[in-house]
């Protein structure tokens, strides 16, 4: 029975945030190193922003896994929308104990003013655009105590210039923007993903023509690329099991890439 390498390839493109699957690309690696240097500076807030699917959550997860080995750092991957829950969460991390029953924002600020940390703790907040403005203001006030610094990720949309917001202009001292991949970067990303799963033959089958087709459909967005390639290899896996004579295992089919684009809604017939 023929080994279904396509089923293995699907796993490589599951759209999950797993720092172990972080792919090094030169431009992204440069931004990552810049982000680490920003956190070494006496900043209160650092902003990591970009369109959905540009790799913010993955970079945040990778950063957490690296920093937690040498310094106090806490990752909040899913927003805690309820204000008191969030503030109690921050209190527990920073003070190392549960918040008192009688608790409010002033309780947290007073407790922070009364302590000195040998190393400033870092709190990583993902998907911070989901926090309401009053809670964001409290996050900024916590940062103003200089007893904690925050790295927050936000979505950048076509209609909204995040950096132009008044509270970011006055409080954030450094910001880093992530972008979609170029065609060359996308080819490196795809091939490295496959090589990481020891799928050498499939990695070598991706030509510039294939990558340009995928880039045309996804605009280099990593999330959309993962979705398209997961679907592509699902189609291949189906054919391999049900109609193996209708596909070639020696080269990729542009038509099947287009079929995957249609199936995922990235292109329309």
Plain-language structure description:
- The chain is 51% helix and 10% strand.
- The protein is an alpha/beta fold and 269 residues long.
- Helix 6 links the parallel strand 3 (122-125) and strand 4 (149-155).
- Helix 10 crosses helix 11 and helix 11 (222-242) packs across helix 12 (254-263).
Provide the succession of SSEs: HHEHEHHEHEHEHHHHH
Helix content range: 40-55%
Distance between the termini: 36 Å
Oligomer: single chain
Radius of gyration from the alpha-carbon trace, in angstroms:
22 Å
Q: Could you name the CATH topology of the largest domain?
A: Rossmann fold
Strand order in space, largest sheet: 2-3-4-1-5
Second CATH tier, the architecture of the largest domain: 3-Layer(aba) Sandwich
Principal-axes shape call: elongated
The CATH superfamily of the largest domain is: P-loop containing nucleotide triphosphate hydrolases
Secondary structure blueprint with pairings:
Blueprint: H1 5-12, H2 26-40, E1 45-50, H3 56-67, E2 73-76, H4 83-95, H5 105-113, E3 122-125, H6 133-144, E4 149-155, H7 166-171, E5 174-178, H8 183-196, H9 200-205, H10 208-218, H11 222-242, H12 254-263
Parallel strand pairs: 1-4, 1-5, 2-3, 3-4
Summarize the structure.
The chain is α/β, with parallel strands linked by helices and 269 residues long.
What are its keywords?
single chain, about 270 residues, alpha/beta, five-stranded parallel beta sheet
């Amino acid at each position: 029975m023929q080994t279904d390498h396509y089923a293995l390839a699907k796993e490589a493109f599951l759209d999950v945030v797993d720092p172990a699957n972080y792919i090094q690309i030169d431009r992204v690696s440069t931004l990552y190193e810049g982000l680490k240097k920003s956190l070494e500076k006496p900043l209160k807030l650092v902003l990591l922003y970009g369109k959905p699917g540009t790799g913010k959550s993955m970079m945040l997860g990778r950063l957490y896994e690296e920093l937690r080995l040498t310094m106090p750092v806490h990752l909040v991957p899913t927003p805690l929308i309820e204000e008191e829950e969030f503030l109690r969460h921050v209190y527990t991390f920073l003070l190392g104990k549960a918040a008192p029953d009688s608790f409010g924002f002033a309780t947290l600020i007073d407790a922070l003013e009364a302590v000195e940390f040998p190393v400033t703790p870092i709190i990583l907040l993902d998907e911070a655009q989901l926090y309401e403005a009053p809670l964001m203001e409290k996050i900024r006030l916590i940062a103003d105590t200089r007893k904690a610094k925050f790295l927050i990720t936000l979505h950048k949309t076509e209609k909204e210039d995040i950096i132009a917001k008044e509270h970011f202009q006055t409080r954030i001292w450094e910001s880093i923007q992530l972008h979609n991949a170029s065609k060359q970067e996308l080819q490196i990303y795809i091939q490295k993903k496959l090589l990481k799963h020891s799928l050498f033959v499939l990695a070598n089958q991706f030509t510039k023509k294939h990558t340009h087709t995928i880039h045309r459909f996804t605009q280099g967005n990593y999330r959309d690329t993962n979705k398209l390639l997961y679907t592509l290899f699902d189609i291949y896996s189906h054919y391999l099991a049900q109609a193996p004579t209708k596909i070639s295992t020696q080269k990729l089919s542009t038509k099947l890439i287009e079929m995957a684009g249609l199936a995922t809604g990235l292109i329309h017939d």
